[in-house]
Amino acid sequence: MITISNLHFSYGQRPVFSGLNLRLAAGTICGLLGRNGTGKSTLLRNIGGFLFPQKGQITTLGFQPGRRQPAFLEQVILLPETFQLPPVSMRQWLKNNAPFYARFDLDAFHRYAKDFEIPSTPRLTELSYGQQKKAMISFALATNAPLLLMDEPTNGLDIVGKSQFRKIIAGAIDESRAILISTHQVKDLEQLIDRILIIDEGKLVFDQPLASVADKLLFKLSFDPTEEEQSLYCETSFKGSALILPNTEQKESRPDLEMLYKAITTDPVTINAQFK
Amino acid sequence: MNTLSDTFSFHRWWLLVTKHWSENYRRYLLFLLAIAGLLLAWFSFILMVSQLNLLNSFMQFAAYFAGLYLVGCFYASWLFADLNSPQGGIGFLALPASHLEKLLCALFFGVLLFFIGYTLVFYLVDIPMLSLSNSILIKYPRNYQDTSIQIPPDQLFNVFDNHAFLPEPGTFLAGFFSTQALFFLGSVYFTRWTFIKSVIAALLCLLIFVFIDAKLLNLFLPSGWHDVFFLWVHNDAYQHPSQYIRLPHTTGKLLNIFIAVCAPLFLWIITWQRLKEKEV
Lengths: 276, 280
Fold this sequence. Notes:
heterodimer; A: alpha/beta; three-stranded antiparallel beta sheet; about 30% strand; B: mainly alpha
């Protein structure tokens, strides 16, 4: 679905990507993590055709994104972190925008809107930011676009909203679709994503399916100093030490994405070595 | 490679037009009402303070074109305002329509509908105000200053034929489309303060034009001749009215066509290219 090779991008003199490579296939919900300013949104905008690579190549669904052809825009939806909705009713908004998407499913939109509990108001602008975001997510899903790019989709959603979001996204994914979610809120997506990408200093420093993470790494709390010494990453707290250990005995554990993220940004070489 | 349907589809363009209208029609109706109110206030002011022929053709000409240029250029700057911020820009560029369709939709509203709407509103105010002005002149006849010549009733100003004020009829109107096209380009080219930056760019273009006309052309004219906006006049033209040279009628017409059609078309094509290259 997405093939990025040797992507170079900079804002003026400030380089963001210097030789980033990535391949993303259909049927996955991919979490894109990285520090502030590492270029998560920039990467999504490059994939969506809103920014152009200065060097290297991006192919999204067989299209060159920068050309922004209507057939491409119909199939790749970017949900930005901030957006503006017009001062019209939901019904009018759908009437104005849905016809641009040949595969738009109005029933699905109403189903998502109902699941999100979006209230009915005379104008969309009267909805709160979180409610507007829910409307945008519902619309994006209802387009049936094969590729959804979401930039911080859980920002602005309340606790119930985040849970609804996870449920709806999990129900919307199928073998023909891929969803790439950029986020700081790792915990919000822990049970949702099946592949994790971490970018740091202009490069993709980690790219593994979550199943592989669970297979190769063991996440556990321990008071054992020997285990602490053997750990790949350790965080001490009053409840004991939270450890990431090599999973040599194929034990089952639930990956803690926040800890994994910290471990990778601290020492990517050691963590990545476990996957070779 | 782009196919024709990637570049233009009437169906998609019409969807854009209906979407734009649905989202903005309230704003536009208020906008037209505001223009009507401003024209009404201005004409009422003229009627109150003018001592001579109240709403003469020049007064109508000045009001029409001042409004047309100011409001038309401001509106042209506003039509692509979404591109000034990432959130608006992504929403605008992400809509599955081609750049050409998006530009043509903006031109449909900004050039065609605006011109028709503004001109209609102008005449809706101008016609009753002119008849009021003429009825005042009939009821209270006045003479031109220091003469016994009575001021006749004023004629309705024809926007398509402003002979009286320029050597070629329609030049001011033609110039509007070129100027407005510059503001369309500015709104896509600049990312912040688009209107102000476009005004500066337009003034620079005007300065270059005036420099060419007033300085450069005079260098090539024989001694005793000077250039007045492409009209070459001998210094004692007042004594000998025949001593001036003007462009042939057809050349003047061609110049008008260039200003009205070729220059805007050229600027619109550049705007289209800039829209394709726009990053947000």
